[in-house]
Amino acid sequence: DKENLQRGTETVKEQVKTDLINLMLTEPGERVHLLGYGVGLKSMLFSHRIDLKNLNTNIDKQIKTYLPQIQLKDVQSNFAKKDHILYIKIVYKYNLDGDMDAIQLNFNKDNYAV
Known about the structure:
Largest sheet: 4 strands, antiparallel
Order of helices and strands: HHHHEEEE
Oligomer: single chain
Radius of gyration: 14 Å
Helix content: 25-40%
Strand order of the largest sheet: 1-2-3-4
Structural class: alpha+beta
Number of strands: 4
Distance between the termini: 10 Å
């Protein structure tokens, strides 16, 4: 929702979701002073080989390091090699109140869709 991006986030949960999406879209080395921040999906997508097990482990490590206010519950990832599309669903729990939430990300070489 473009309107919401211009307004910013209104709740802590919206901010956490925005932070999680940012973490997923950021390449390691892209953020000054946080060189390890970022999952690196873009570089994976453009490589010839995507290791989904390593991807899931990396997502878990990144969340534990940079988003301690949530706990990863499930990562479902699939790479459609023919179409060169990477699908990722992340299910997580807010540590403060135990509520569950999820995001779905779909990536291809030409553009990113969230």
